[in-house]
């Protein structure tokens, strides 16, 4: 067999494997029962730039009714019998329910669920690109709601590509916190554009986070990737790193180290001798940002741009 035919055969085989890996798991777990993780295993990561499945998404954030599929019994939906038939009241209250805390790449949902109880006044949304894992988290949340009536109504999960569609779901200055926990390091230099922390995406995150109060949380067990995160965030004019004391005082830092699956592995096994490296950044007010001009834009250190001579 020629090398060309071998290559075609290998590509067809790989495509078939990818199709099977991305197929949702149906009928294994009934809604209300706790899913077993062994049935929802998937590849650890995928290439978000070439993942071109036909995701459904709104053309603008105000067209998304989050109470329909995600938060049908959200705590803010007041149960008032006198207004039960008032359609305008119901529409106004349901449209007021919008996520303000994102767990980007939520994995199997440990942090998403932990944030639900730690931040009861917030609305938590886990974002995940892998269909099997998304289904696992969805069933896990439903099971927790059934086992603990009145709890976990403020958290949900959405399958989407966070590197492409965030502005379709979330309006300007609508988010209070964004968590990026143990993302794919994409070690090869040619794959660095796939990293979820970059100059372009940080500007997008700054657009979505509330000025002054918005926070961006990053954690990884890869030291080089942590250095990348710090470098990109430090050079962005709209983010300021919290001090060690400020991070110690933030309970969400403890949660992202102790409730994520990767965080548990590092703690439990000392996986490969790795430690956890993290940083938290505050979204600065626009008037606090470093002014940018045509003269200073390409200076070394601005926006991660480095002039190679």
How do the strands line up in the largest sheet? 3-2-1-4-5-7-6
User: What is the count of helical runs?
Assistant: 11
* Overall SS class: alpha/beta
Distance between the termini: 49 Å
**Strand residue percentage:** 5-15%
Order of helices and strands: HHHEHEHEHEHEHEHHHE
Radius of gyration: 21 Å
The residue ranges in which pLDDT falls below 50 over 5 or more consecutive positions are: 6-23
Largest sheet: 7 strands, mixed
- State the shape: globular
Helix content: 25-40%
Report the count of strand segments: 7
What integer is the average pLDDT? 83
Key traits:
309 residues; alpha/beta; seven-stranded mixed β-sheet; 11 helices; 7 strands; 11% strand; tRNA-binding; tRNA_(Gua-N-7)_MeTrfase_Trmb
Q: How is this fold's topology laid out?
A:
Blueprint lengths: L2 H20 L43 H4 L17 H9 L5 E4 L5 H9 L5 E5 L2 H17 L7 E5 L2 H8 L7 E5 L17 H10 L6 E6 L2 H13 L3 E3 L2 H5 L2 H8 L2 H9 L7 E7 L26
Helix pairs in contact: 4-10
Describe this structure in words.
With 309 residues, the chain is an alpha/beta fold. It is built from eleven helices and seven strands. The chain has helices spanning 3-22, 66-69, 87-95, 110-118, 131-147, 162-169, 199-208, 223-235, 244-248, 251-258, 261-269, and strands at 101-104, 124-128, 155-159, 177-181, 215-220, 239-241, 277-283. Strands 3-2-1-4-5-7-6 form a seven-stranded mixed beta sheet, with helices on both faces. Helix 4 (110-118) runs antiparallel to helix 10. The radius of gyration is 21 Å and the shape is globular. It starts with a helix and ends in a 26-residue tail after the last strand. 29% of the residues are buried. The model is unreliable at 6-23 (pLDDT under 50).
